[in-house]
Write a structure and sequence with these properties.
The protein has about 220 residues and is of the alpha/beta class. It has one domain: SGNH hydrolase (Rossmann fold). The chain has a 5-stranded parallel beta sheet, sandwiched between helices. Helix 9 links the parallel strand 4 and strand 5. The protein is globular and about 45 Å long.
Length: about 220
C-alpha cells in the first residue's frame, strides 16, 4: 500500500501542477541550473514519466553510482516530454539519453492522440538528440493491460504492443538501440504479473532491478 500511495501522490502532484507549468519546465529547473553551473554533466539522462520518476525514487543509488540523471515527470505524455527535451536533456550535455514515453498517451491523460503521433513524438526526440551529439536509446512502453485511473479505456495491452512494434522497427531501421522491457516483463494478458507491479501499470521496486540490468547492457551497446 505504501508503494501505491507514493505513485498516487506523484500523479496527483503532477496533475495539479499542469495548470501552472503544463510542460514541466520548473520541475527540474533548479537541479538543471546546478548541473550546468558546475559543468557536472551526466553520462546518461533518463527521460520519461512516472515510471522513470519512481525509478529514481526507489533506486537513487543506481543513478548516482552511474552518474545518470532521472528526468521523469508523473503523468506526462510524449508531447510534453518533447517540449521540455532541450531543458531537461540537451542542456545537460549527456552522452546518451534513454527515452521511455507513451504510457500516458495511451491512457489519454491529457487528450487523445493516435498511436502514430506517439511514435512521431519519440522519433522527434531522437532527432533532436542526434542533432546535438547525444546518442538516443529507445525504451519500449512497459506492459499494462488496464489503467487503474482510466478503466474505461479498452485494448490497452494491444495498443501498447502496436506502438512498441513501430518503435522497434524505427530503431532497427535507424541503428538505434532498443530496450524491450515489454518482452521481458509482460504476462500472457499483456500486463505486468502481480509480483512485478502494485497497480498493474508501474513496476515495483524489485522489477526495476530487471530493468536496470537491461538498460545497462543497452547503454554499453549504444556506446
Amino acid at each position: 500500500m505504501k508503494k501505491l500511495a507514493i505513485t498516487l501522490i506523484l500523479t496527483t502532484m503532477s496533475i495539479f501542477g499542469f495548470a501552472q507549468d503544463w510542460f514541466g519546465y520548473n520541475v527540474y529547473k533548479a537541479d538543471n541550473e546546478r548541473i550546468i553551473a558546475a559543468k557536472d554533466y551526466p553520462e546518461v539522462v533518463f527521460m520519461g514519466n512516472s515510471i522513470t520518476e519512481l525509478w529514481a525514487y526507489y533506486h537513487p543509488n543506481f543513478f548516482s553510482d552511474n552518474h545518470f540523471c532521472g528526468r521523469g515527470i508523473s503523468g506526462q505524455t510524449s508531447a510534453q516530454m518533447l517540449v521540455r527535451f532541450y531543458e531537461d536533456v540537451v542542456a545537460l550535455h549527456p552522452k546518451a539519453v534513454v527515452i521511455m514515453a507513451g504510457t500516458n498517451d495511451v491512457a489519454h491523460n491529457d487528450y487523445w492522440v493516435s498511436p502514430e503521433r506517439v511514435v512521431e513524438n519519440i522519433i522527434a526526440m531522437c532527432n533532436i538528440a542526434k542533432a546535438n551529439g547525444i546518442v538516443p536509446i529507445i525504451s519500449s512502453i512497459p506492459p499494462c493491460k488496464e489503467f487503474p485511473w482510466r478503466k474505461e479505456i479498452k485494448n490497452v495491452g494491444q495498443t501498447i504492443v502496436d506502438i512498441n512494434n513501430s518503435l522497434k522497427e524505427y530503431a532497427a531501421a535507424n541503428k538505434i538501440v532498443y530496450v524491450d522491457y515489454h518482452a521481458a516483463l509482460a504476462d500472457e494478458q499483456l500486463g505486468f504479473p502481480k509480483s512485478m507491479s502494485d497497480d498493474g501499470c508501474h513496476p515495483n521496486a524489485d522489477t526495476y532491478y530487471i530493468m536496470e540490468e537491461m538498460v545497462l547492457k543497452a547503454i554499453q551497446k549504444a556506446r
